[in-house]
Amino acid sequence: MQKSEPKAEYLFRENNLTAELLAVLKAGEQNAVTSRQIQKAFGVKQRELRKIVEKCRKSGVFILASDQGYFFPASKDELQRFIRRESNRVKNQCIAIAPLKRYLKQLDSG
Predict the structure, then answer these.
(1) What is the rounded average pLDDT of the residues 87-109?
(2) Could you tell me the residue ranges of all domains in the chain?
(3) CA-CA-CA-CA torsion for 98, 101, 102, 103, nearest 10 degrees?
(4) Which overall architecture, per CATH, does domain 1-74 show?
(5) pTM of the shown model
């Protein structure tokens, strides 16, 4: 959201972009739409697209992502692969921050 853009206009734009995104996505990884295609078609930046996808997911819309792009699940296998990939990503992030947490504890106790 631009600082000069009124909140109501931003929300209207965000809701329209969300509706447009949902309209272009198809079921199945073989029909995935790349983030570049979406960004170009709707004139959004990567960060804004990710926020829209995150908001949709939080509201219960099943949008999956892979190296091929964004799509709706077409099978149990696609759901399982996405869940496994995202779970591994979270696990790796936790592993990466664990040493930082230990160091912070040292700073607090020292």
Answers:
(1) 95
(2) 1-74, 75-110
(3) 120
(4) Orthogonal Bundle (1.10)
(5) 0.79
